[in-house]
C-alpha cells in the first residue's frame, strides 16, 4: 500500500510575517522571504507542528500530495 506523502504549506495571503515559525519554532522548515515566511523544507517535523500550533493566524497547514 502506498503511503500518502504530507507536506507543509504556507498560505502567504494569511501570513502576517511575525517570524515565529522561521525564527523560533522550526528554522529548519521555514525561512523568511521578503514579507512572509516561506517553506524551506516541507517535511512534517515535530518542530513544524509547533509552528502550526503557534502561528497566530493559522497560515501553516499540512497538505497531502
Ligand atoms: S508563524 Fe505564521 S504568521 Fe508568523 S511568519 Fe510564520 S506563517 Fe507567518
Helices and strands, with pairings:
Elements: E1 6-10, H1 20-25, E2 30-32, E3 37-39, H2 46-54, E4 60-64
Antiparallel strand pairs: 1-4, 2-3
Note down, in words, how this protein is organized:
- With 65 residues, the chain is of the alpha+beta class.
- It has one domain: Alpha-Beta Plaits (2-Layer Sandwich).
- The protein has helices at residues 20-25, 46-54; strands spanning 6-10, 30-32, 37-39, 60-64.
- The protein has a two-stranded antiparallel ribbon.
- The longest helix has 9 residues, at 46-54.
- It is globular and about 40 Å long.
- Iron/sulfur cluster binds next to helix 1.
Care to give the gist of this entry?
The protein is α+β, with helices and mostly antiparallel strands. It has 2 helices and 4 strands.
Number of domains: 1
Low-confidence stretches: none
Helix content: 10-25%
The total of beta strands comes to 4
Radius of gyration over C-alpha positions, nearest whole angstrom: 11 Å
What binds here, in terms of ligands, is: iron/sulfur cluster
Provide the succession of SSEs. Answer: EHEEHE
Strand-residue proportion: 15-25%
Enter the CATH topology name: Alpha-Beta Plaits
Please tell me the overall pLDDT.
Answer: 95
Identify the CATH architecture.
2-Layer Sandwich
Overall 3D shape: globular
Biggest sheet: strand arrangement: 1-4
Structural class: alpha+beta
Name of the CATH class:
Alpha Beta
Q: What is the helix tally?
A: 2
* Amino- and carboxy-terminal Cα gap: 15 Å
The biggest beta sheet reads: 2 strands, antiparallel
Amino acid at each position: 500500500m502506498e503511503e500518502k506523502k504530507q507536506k507543509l504549506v504556507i498560505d502567504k495571503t494569511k501570513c502576517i510575517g511575525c517570524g515565529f515559525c522561521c525564527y523560533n519554532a522550526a528554522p529548519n522548515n521555514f525561512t523568511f522571504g521578503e514579507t512572509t515566511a516561506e517553506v524551506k523544507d516541507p517535511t512534517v517535523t515535530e518542530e513544524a507542528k509547533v509552528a502550526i500550533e503557534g502561528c497566530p493566524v493559522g497560515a501553516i497547514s499540512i497538505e497531502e500530495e
